[in-house]
Specification:
Rossmann fold; about 270 residues; about 35% helix
């Protein structure tokens, strides 16, 4: 497969958040692929309140902002901000709404400070990314999702947006890390997904239940084309779920040349 454009949907990216395994890989893989292979890369992450806009030179993209995301019959304005990572000039887009990513007085992320909103926060972020990509009229060959906050993105893309020219031809890859939800999601999560017309058996099984990280993977994994294990430690039940799915899989956790291994995996489709 010839690859000219890759979309990364990331939960954390350094230097916007403190260094962690996920945040470091969230920068190094897209940056490395852009530098070494000349691929056009765009990366999306939440605009957490912790992120200093002035220091990181974020600015609002007026032509992209102004859309609303409806969640459970309530409108939420979608604000798009962008920054450029030097020296590669890699563009990073930030999904923002002050209902879900309000400025914080502490250094804790909103996902930890207010976990009771994570069900809607997930839906808003995922739909915000997809709507922005559509408005950009930008069609990536590969879409990589990393982190629980976008684990359901493959499901939305394949069920609600699969006829969209920006999405329909892309291969969707899921990245695995050592992670878990700060707290189980609220019991209305399935109802909010069903409001968007997603009524798969996996969603119906979550009605009136608190969804876990494993539940999110069960929603998103069936709609992925492949899985990459980035972290050295990934929960056994996660790996068992991936094995059961039969999806193409690669483990790059101990790789000496992770960028090349990831890019080669993309090209294998």
């Amino acid at each position: 497969m010839e690859i000219s454009k890759v979309l990364f949907i990331s939960q954390e990216i350094t230097p916007y958040l403190p260094e962690s395994e996920m945040a470091t890989i969230g920068r190094e893989i897209p940056q490395g692929i852009q530098e070494k292979h000349g691929v056009e890369v765009r990366t999306f992450m939440p605009k957490y309140g912790f992120i200093n806009e002035r220091r990181n030179q974020l600015h609002e993209v007026i032509r992209l902002s102004g859309m609303n995301v409806i969640i459970d019959d309530s409108d939420h304005p979608l604000v798009i901000k962008v920054a450029t990572l030097l020296p590669t000039r890699m563009q990073v887009y930030f999904i923002y709404n002050d209902d879900y990513f309000a400025p914080s007085l502490t250094k804790e992320l909103e996902t930890i400070e207010s976990p009771e909103d994570n069900d809607e926060r997930i839906i808003f972020f995922v739909r915000g990314v997809i709507e922005t990509v559509r408005k950009l009229r930008w069609a990536p060959a590969v879409i990589q999702c990393s982190g629980w906050i976008d684990a359901i993105a493959p499901m939305y893309m394949r069920l609600n947006y699969n006829d969209d020219p920006s999405i329909c031809d892309a291969k969707i890859i899921l990245g695995l890390f050592d992670e878990d939800l700060p707290a189980p999601l609220g019991k209305d999560f399935a109802k909010k997904l069903m409001f968007d017309g997603i009524k798969t058996p996996e969603v119906k099984a979550l009605v009136d239940k608190n969804a876990t990280y494993i539940d999110l993977l069960k929603l998103g994994l069936p709609y992925c084309d492949g899985v990459i294990k980035y972290a050295k430690k990934v929960k056994p039940e996660v790996l068992a779920l991936v094995k059961e799915s039969g999806k193409p899989f690669v483990d790059v956790a101990d790789s000496d040349n992770m960028v090349e291994d990831v890019f080669n995996f993309y090209q294998s489709f």
